[in-house]
Amino acid sequence: MNQYQFFYDISGLAMKVHNKFGYGLLESAYEAGMEYLLKQNGYKVERQVYLPMYWDDVKLEQSYRMDLVVNDNIILELKAMAHVDSDHRRQLWNYMNLTHLPYGMLINFSNSLYSEWYHRKDNGNIDKINLESLKREDLDNLR
Which of 25, 30, 95, 128 could be a cystine partner for 109, CB 3.0 to 4.6 Å? Predict the structure, then answer.
């Protein structure tokens, strides 16, 4: 099985949500749909996960909320806008670095569904996962 199979599975569920709701809704509607389908498919899902900020050991009066955390190792950052830009990617990458979670997925529920997949390495580098970079036999196994 491909090490990134879950990205394909989650993308398929996002497509179901997109087909059901269309586009033009608030991000929270897609978030609720994704949470429901992920749980129905056996994933552990936490919604609006609190992420505190620290300066060394001091907790600051600032925090963030991650849209969805799946299986304790995948951050799903959901958007519902015309297009995704570098600020949206940076938001996901910052969450990945602050939590040290290894996987992130940016999903935009615009007029056409769009997603990007990321893997955070042990050294802190974040790589975009491209279909072209996967081995041919891994792609064949997904069919």
Answer: 30
Closest by alpha carbon to 103, among 73, 125, 132, 77? 73
SS3 assignment, position 74: strand
> For residue 136, how many C-alpha atoms fall within 13 Å in the half-sphere facing its CB?
0
- The three-state secondary structure class of 30 is helix
Main-chain dihedrals φ then ψ at residue 68, nearest 5 degrees: -140, 140
State pLDDT tens for residues 50-70: 999 999 999 999 999 999 999
Return phi, psi of residue 138, to 5°.
Answer: -65, -40
Sequence letter at residue 86 = S
